[in-house]
Amino acid sequence: MLHADKFKVPGEHSFYFQGGAGALEAVLTVPEEVDGHYIALLGHPHSLQGGTMNNKVVTTMVRVFKALGIPCIRFNFRGVGLSEGVYDKGIGESDDMLLLARQCRQQLPGVQCLFAGFSFGSYVAYRTAALSEHALLITIAPSVLHFDYTEFAPAPDPWLIVQGDEDEIVPSSSVLEFAAQARPAIPVLQFAETGHFFHGKLVALKERLIEAVRAQVSA
Q1: Are the CB atoms for 211 and 187 separated by under 8 Å?
Q2: What is the number of structural domains in the chain?
């Protein structure tokens, strides 16, 4: 269970919270110096294709928020690791992220949530942001061909897309077209010579995301 006291102790804190289909394992990362205005909730890649909360892109996002002084929580979706339940196509997973966001707001009144996800986890983050107040939505390599990122209107705002131009799973052209057609158009942080999993680009991903998130939360 998540307790407010954990947010006062720097480091990584493992805990479980109750999702819609059972207990889910999670990790809270608290920076040395905390910006008490925000908390980030992170989503991992596809549950049926080896995705976990310890994915390298997800842990890179952890380092981004740690550098910005923003606590973050990543958790294993239903049926992943020690989390109970079964894969639910992003619907149940986003319901669980919503429950976690509500718990964070109860423990930390006035805190604003940032939702961020990678690949399938970006769809979970998208659905959560669309159904919840948020300071920023970040979708890294969003699977726009496999999931409906137009499900809710109006679209979540603010929203930032991060995309590699050599993505072998989600063609960058489809992501760029989606972003351009959105209303309002969604800004895209593009990475040259970069595949879906950002191999060899994680340092650059961290640096550019720190800059982009800092610009948003300080705006």
Answers
A1: no
A2: 1
